[in-house]
Amino acid sequence: MDEYNELPQTEEESEEEQPRRPGAELYDWLQMFLGCVVAAVVLFNCVARLTRVDGGSMDTTLQHGEIMLIWSLGYTPKQGDIVVLNKTSVLLPDWNEPRAIVKRVIATGGQTVDVDYSTGTVYVDGQALDEPYLHEEMRRPGAPSMQETHWEVPEGSIFVMGDNRNYSTDSRDSLLGTIDTDYILGRAVLALWPLERFGTV
């Protein structure tokens, strides 16, 4: 009669039979949760972030209170982009505190900007811009700080304007002026809320 030989247990089988230490499952969940938190912090500080539109200077392209996703990683500003600027060093007369602002890039470093209020036309390097996003003709502003009509944009800076030109404090205002690119938080890429406004910017 053959003698029965019991096969030795494998390492995996031995581990399966051993009861898990108390709290091991909680530890695994905590590790996963902390990993998600770290990933979210990196994502929303270095790659992309959420921003709320404050004010009506971008009507009707973007509306007050609208929530957008902005992209930061590796972003280089280009003419026509909508950007969020952290211009916290400026406190304009109608602001209670410094704030991030949303504007459209009109020109970048090395370019010139001219505004002809008689025709409501903006020229960059002598070429008239086609601006279908404007919903009314641009008028000459009355503020003393917004009477300039010619600008030369320094290298490393951008010239920005709101789409709602007649109700926008932007680079035309000497109190704000051209914006150093270090103040750019990112480019608006997606409108998230309210849902009826959902879509690319």
Protein architecture, described:
This protein is of the alpha+beta class and 201 residues long. It folds into 2 domains: 36 residues; 151 residues, Umud Fragment, subunit A (Ribbon), CATH 2.10.109.10. The protein contains 2 helices and 12 strands; from the N terminus they run ααββββββββββββ. Strand 5 and strand 6 form a beta hairpin. The longest helix has 24 residues. The protein is elongated and about 80 Å long.
Number of domains: 2
Q: How far apart are the first and last residues' alpha carbons, in Å? A: 82 Å
**CATH architecture level-2 label of the largest domain:** Ribbon
SSE topology string = HHEEEEEEEEEEEE
- Give the low-confidence spans: none
Q: From the alpha-carbon coordinates, what is the Rg to the nearest angstrom?
A: 27 Å
CATH topology of the largest domain, what is it called? Umud Fragment, subunit A
Mean pLDDT: 78
Taken from the alpha-carbon principal axes, the silhouette is: elongated
Individual helix count: 2
Residue fraction in strands: 25-35%
CATH level-4 homologous superfamily of the largest domain: Umud Fragment, subunit A
Total beta-strand segments: 12
Q: Could you estimate the helical fraction of the residues in percent?
A: 10-25%
Task: Specify the structural class.
Answer: alpha+beta
State the name of the first-level CATH class of the largest domain.
Answer: Mainly Beta
> Largest sheet at a glance?
8 strands, antiparallel
Key phrases:
201 residues; alpha+beta; Umud Fragment, subunit A; 2 domains; 8-stranded antiparallel sheet; 4-stranded antiparallel sheet; 12 strands; 15% helix; 27% strand; elongated
